[in-house]
Design a protein that fits this description.
Layout (H helix, E strand, L loop, with lengths): L1 E6 L6 H14 L3 E6 L6 H5 L7 E3 L10 E6 L2 H12 L2 H8 L2 H9 L3 H15 L4 E5 L8 H13 L2 H14 L6 H14 L1 H32 L5 E7 L4 H14 L4 E9 L13 H28 L5 E6 L8 H8 L6
Parallel strand pairs: 1-5, 1-6, 2-4, 2-5, 6-7, 7-8
Antiparallel strand pairs: 3-4
Helix pairs in contact: 1-13, 3-4, 3-6, 3-10, 6-7, 6-10, 7-10, 8-10, 9-10, 11-12
The structure holds adenosine-5'-triphosphate and magnesium ion (MG).
Length: about 350
């Protein structure tokens, strides 16, 4: 199994390049999944997916592929549902899924996406895909899906949190835990009101095994994401930003002990031999000048980015600007032609 994770700043073509890479792997005969953990869901257009079905097989008839390509959106409620059901009995799972605090948590907890992303990755690993390509949110949030789960793992193993999970049920049934925790629960009730405190603490104690299951899987998944035999990160950028983005993402990722292999510079204007005929209008001449000057600026930027990338990741990849949007298998195939094997 191989996992490739694509990061980069906003709008540089992460989603398109991730989907094209997955298509390339499918064309090479593999069963590939491209999963977006970006709530913006641009992947739907890139792959030409049907409506909002969270995971579906993409029709590759036009690309004559030997393998399979699947597209998946990060669907928080269904990933959470699967998570709850995998950790507790059916009756307990139902009690959690119907609990008002659970529903509140699903709809109003900011940052749920980043916490669930790592769980969703663990599902994709369990589902037996040979290659997994992950499209992430723009850089502002790029590292949250990596950092938050590890913070959560620490939180779940924090002694006080464990204590509440284990002792509240006893206290609530009047069996009482130790005197210290009984005092604590009585105080919490006085502070926030008995009904609300009861609900929150009751939910918390029911959810404890799920949170521990999540933490265990998140720990394993993060280990897989740090295993360079399985996972590597790819930075997607544009010609003008490639040097800066290459440095920034490489530093942030290696600091977190992840492996980076490619810097992919997308949207490079092709150098055309534009040779206006004698007598061409001044407007045509200035357009040609402008095109050529943008091209030579891009080549200069590219040269600097390539030099700065030496000794960092292993490959430096250039992708052309297409004369169309990336909106379906055919356009993706044109990008995939320029990508090295995954
Ligand atoms: N090589 C290319 N040639 C032509 N158009 C491209 C190319 N790469 C990307 N695009 C277009 O640029 C736009 C942004 O691409 P995409 O959604 O893949 O970027 P992104 O980095 O994922 O954006 P966001 O940060 O918003 O998630 C899309 O309209 C896409 O069709
Ligand atoms: Mg995107």
């Amino acid at each position: 199994m191989k996992i490739r994770i694509f990061v980069g700043t906003g709008g540089v073509g992460k989603t398109s390049v991730t989907a094209a890479s997955a298509l390339g792997a499918a064309m090479g005969g593999r069963k590939s999944l491209v999963l977006t953990i970006d709530p913006a869901l641009r992947l739907r257009t890139a792959l030409g997916m049907d409506g909002e079905i969270p995971q579906q097989r993409i029709d590759l008839a036009s690309a004559r592929s030997k393998g399979e390509l699947w597209g998946a959106l990060l669907d928080v409620p269904s990933a959470m549902d699967r998570m709850v059901r995998s950790d507790v009995s059916e009756a307990k799972a139902r009690a959690i899924l119907e609990h008002p605090i659970y529903r509140l948590m699903l709809t109003s907890l900011a940052g749920m996406n980043e916490l669930v992303a790592v769980e969703r990755i663990s599902h994709a690993i369990a589902d037996g895909f040979e290659t997994l390509f992950i499209d992430t949110a723009p850089s502002r949030h790029a590292f949250e899906f990596l950092d938050k789960p590890e913070f959560f793992v620490e939180l779940v193993t924090f002694p006080l949190v464990k204590l509440v999970g284990r002792t509240f049920g006893l206290w609530n049934r009047g069996v009482s835990g130790d005197a210290g925790s009984s005092n604590l629960y009585t105080k919490v009730q006085q502070l926030v009101g008995a009904a609300l405190a009861g609900q929150v603490l009751e939910f918390f104690s029911m959810f404890q095994p799920v949170a521990e299951g999540y933490a265990k899987r998140a720990k394993n998944t993060m280990k897989t994401l740090r295993d360079s035999r399985i996972t590597s990160f790819r930075i997607v950028s544009s010609p003008g930003r490639a040097r800066q983005d290459g440095n920034y993402f490489f530093t942030e990722l290696t600091k977190r002990k992840f492996t980076v292999d490619d810097l992919i510079v997308n949207r490079l204007w092709p150098e055309l031999s534009l040779d206006p005929s004698p007598g061409a209008s001044p407007a045509t001449l200035s357009l040609v000048d402008w095109y050529n000057s943008v091209c030579s600026q891009q080549r200069a930027d590219l040269g600097k980015a390539r030099t700065a990338w030496m000794g960092k990741g292993s490959r430096f990849v250039e992708l052309p600007e297409l004369a169309q949007d990336i909106d379906g298998v055919q356009a993706l195939a044109r990008i995939a032609e320029h990508l090295p094997n995954s």
